[in-house]
Amino acid sequence: MGSAQGHGGLQTHFRMLVPFLIREGHQVGAINVADSAEGVVRGNAFTYVMPHTVGSPWATLRKSLGFLFARRRAARFMPELFIGTAIGRAYAQIAQSLPAKTFKIWEEVWGEIPKNDPLRIHVSGCFDAVAAQSPLIAKIFQEQIPCTKPVRVLPCFAEPLNFTALPTLPAQDAPLRLCFFGRLAKNKGVCEFLRAFARVAPQVNATFDIHGSGPEKPAIAELIASLGLKDRVSLLGPYPGGDEYSKLLASYHCLVAPSRGYEGVPLVLIEAMNCGLPFLATSIGAIPDAARNNEDVLLMPLDEDGMIASLQEFSLKVRSGTVSCARLKNFYDQHFSPAVMEQSWREMLSAPRMFFS
């Protein structure tokens, strides 16, 4: 059960998980939490679309009826395994309605978890086990949530990009081309990074392209103007997908992820590593899990002076040849590639109760 509407990490994971389970020979019922049939993930046993948005009395009634039908359909299917790929009371209630023989797994992907969060306490209590996206998320969950259920690491699928060519790092006197890809929201930290960038950009000889859209776009545009960065920073709007996205990533020297809250392992970091593109990121949430034993990326503090020092350090690493795009691509292949993710899931699927015990 999950949602495939959108291009975030959870949606991508659900889109890839269902076909993987089918390829592995399982009978799969897919409950899609969505407002339309567009992009719906189809199971080979059954496919059901349950409304998501509530904005009017009719929408509320439609969602309530949709939930009742989803619960009934899941119970009739009598699954051996139920996987909830997102958090919500509907996931918990459907888990509760399933037969006792069904082993129920809830996936936790957030790296910023409120202490004693009532929703997480409730949802985890309705499942038999918690699957954390990464080791740090498992640790944070166990520290923040009183839960007697077993917690194990089970990665989320990330759709691989077609690899064309490694990025070419800049010569000594060429500008360092930095980029940001993602939703322009406050928690992404773009404004804070721009203030640090403005103080050090001439010294490190860098430019910064911002790809994406969102509610912070007007504030970012205003800040670029007020900081006098129009010659060095470009606000480029939505970006393409597929092969064009892969080529665009590989055209830069470094991806910046200055997040300030609510991050698991961001999909964009996995995509950057897939292309061999080094990244500079804050250590929010589970981001350090993508940097552990990874020589070709750098974590930076949240404060402005710390970001400036990190920019200077990373610029030196790139220009001195210390950073290796080929080594980073190999790191991705060993730790985040589809083959690695699939093997983790096969291990769990061979004996779910033993895996979590």
Radius of gyration: 22 Å
CATH topology term of the largest domain: Rossmann fold
Unreliable stretches: none
User: What is the correct CATH architecture of the largest domain?
Assistant: 3-Layer(aba) Sandwich
* Name of the CATH superfamily of the largest domain: Glycogen Phosphorylase B
**Mean pLDDT over all positions:** 94
End-to-end Cα distance, whole Å, is 23 Å
Number of strands: 12
CATH class of the largest domain reads Alpha Beta
Helix count equals 13
Strand order of the largest sheet: 9-8-7-10-11-12
Biggest sheet character: 6 strands, parallel
Alpha-beta content class: alpha/beta
Fraction of residues in helices? 40-55%
Order of helices and strands: HEEHEHEHEHEEHEHEHEHEEHHHH
Principal-axes geometry comes out as: globular
Number of domains: 2
Strand residue content: 15-25%
Protein traits:
43% helix; 357 residues; alpha/beta; 13 helices; four-stranded parallel sheet; single chain; Rossmann fold; six-stranded parallel sheet
Protein model, in words:
The chain is of the alpha/beta class. It is built from 13 helices and twelve strands. A six-stranded parallel sheet has the order 9-8-7-10-11-12, with helices on both faces. The chain has a four-stranded parallel sheet with strand order 3-4-5-6. It has a two-stranded parallel sheet with strand order 1-2. The radius of gyration is 22 Å and the shape is globular. The two termini are 23 Å apart.
